[in-house]
């Protein structure tokens, strides 16, 4: 499974996520520092994900018809360039424009990289392989936010943005070393119209992912501000603990889903995210925040990579780009919508009420998953 090319894909994915996560815990604070509000911070983060929502289906279609590696390279270059553009920006509207550009690069790289990883993964170990592919994200989250906070405190935002640029460049250099496999024959190459952008077979797992992404938005967009207000300590520690736990769980849970079925892993994971955010709503100490990090990591580690494997399962060999475009669009849409909605709720009702509301999305996801799985069994039996 760990061939040279698959290992390079994991490494490139790590660098791309590191270039984003190094900004994660500090960008909301930067928005406030230049005169923005809590809701502005949510909107700024939403610009990144919503621009990716627009771009991902197009990139998914292109990656089914063109070289995935070339799309990854273009995306990585944009990641590097956009990271430098933050430095001279000192107004919220301009920051939003940079985030839109950054989101285009993120969408291009991430969508093509996921599709390429699916091509490189062995069929019998797909769940496990996609779990390990996501390890780069978790290593980046373990290091990036804490590193970002350290850099800002040590030398200021300039060094933060320079570091993000270097990591984006490293993603480009690593991608250049990957040898893309030959395209397998399949009917997916004949898809036309909207189905070549949004793959119908990917809609069910993507809809479930959307509910999980709504919960994720409450954490990535607003936890730094909540931690600051409630005196919970360095929010980078949350992301470090979260990432280490997910890193440990990804491979084993992927193997379980390969053997016992995807729903068996996803349903408990979504349930745990409900519990985690409910506890977070009442957090008053660093210890509680870190306990939540462990719980939330178990939930996300079970749900997200397994839903990705389910999406690939339901797609043909020549539809994987569109499948990953649909899947990652749902993730970005959930984060984008959630960042705006939870920002407004937090500013209006407070962070505690916001996290209670966000926790309920875990239960909505479980209901949607079980209903969809039951409908699928009924169709198969008919």
Can you describe what's shown?
There is one protein chain. This protein is mainly α. It is built from 14 helices and no strands. Helix 1 runs antiparallel to helix 8, helix 4 (68-85) packs antiparallel against helix 5 and helix 11 packs antiparallel against helix 14. The two termini are 37 Å apart. Helix content is 81%, strand content 0%. The protein has helices spanning 4-21, 27-33, 38-65, 68-85, 92-120, 126-133, 135-154, 157-176, 203-230, 235-260, 262-280, 286-313, 320-349, 351-381. The longest helix has 31 residues, at 351-381.
The CATH architecture can be given as: Up-down Bundle
CATH topology title: Growth Hormone, Chain: A
> What's the number of structural domains?
1
Q: State the fourth-level CATH superfamily.
A: MFS general substrate transporter like domains
């Amino acid at each position: 499974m760990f061939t040279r090319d698959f290992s390079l894909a994991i490494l490139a994915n790590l660098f791309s996520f590191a270039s984003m996560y190094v900004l994660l815990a500090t960008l909301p604070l930067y928005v406030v520092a230049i005169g923005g509000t809590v809701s502005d911070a949510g909107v700024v983060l939403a610009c990144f994900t919503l621009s990716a929502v627009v771009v991902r289906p197009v990139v998914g279609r292109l990656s089914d018809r063109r070289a995935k590696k070339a799309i990854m390279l273009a995306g990585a270059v944009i990641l590097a360039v956009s990271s430098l553009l933050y430095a001279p920006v000192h107004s919220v509207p301009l920051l939003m424009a940079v985030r839109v550009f950054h989101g285009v690069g993120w969408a291009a790289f991430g969508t093509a990289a996921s599709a390429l990883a699916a091509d490189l993964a062995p069929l019998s170990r797909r769940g496990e392989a996609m779990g390990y592919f996501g390890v780069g994200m978790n290593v980046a989250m373990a290091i990036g936010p804490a590193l970002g906070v350290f850099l800002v405190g040590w030398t200021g935002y300039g060094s933060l943005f320079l570091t993000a640029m270097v990591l984006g460049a490293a993603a480009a250099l690593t991608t250049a070393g990957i040898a893309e496999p030959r395209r397998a024959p399949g009917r997916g190459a004949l898809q036309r119209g909207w189905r070549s952008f949004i793959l119908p077979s990917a809609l069910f797992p993507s809809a479930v992912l959307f509910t999980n992404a709504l919960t994720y938005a409450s954490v990535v967009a607003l936890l730094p501000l909540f931690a600051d207000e409630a005196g919970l300590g360095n929010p980078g520690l949350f992301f470090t603990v979260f990432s280490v736990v997910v890193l440990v769980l990804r491979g084993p849970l992927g193997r379980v889903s390969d053997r016992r079925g995807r729903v068996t892993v996803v349903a408990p994971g979504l349930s745990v995210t409900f519990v985690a955010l409910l506890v977070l709503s009442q957090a008053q100490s660093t210890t509680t925040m870190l306990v939540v990090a462990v719980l939330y990591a178990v939930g996300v580690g079970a749900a997200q990579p397994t839903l990705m494997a389910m999406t690939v399962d339901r797609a043909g060999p020549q539809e994987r780009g569109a499948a990953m475009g649909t899947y990652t669009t749902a993730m970005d849409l959930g984060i984008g919508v959630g960042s705006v909605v939870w920002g407004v709720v937090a500013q209006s009702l407070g962070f505690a009420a916001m996290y209670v509301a966000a926790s309920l999305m875990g239960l909505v996801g479980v209901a949607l998953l079980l209903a969809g799985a039951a409908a699928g069994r009924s169709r198969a039996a008919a």
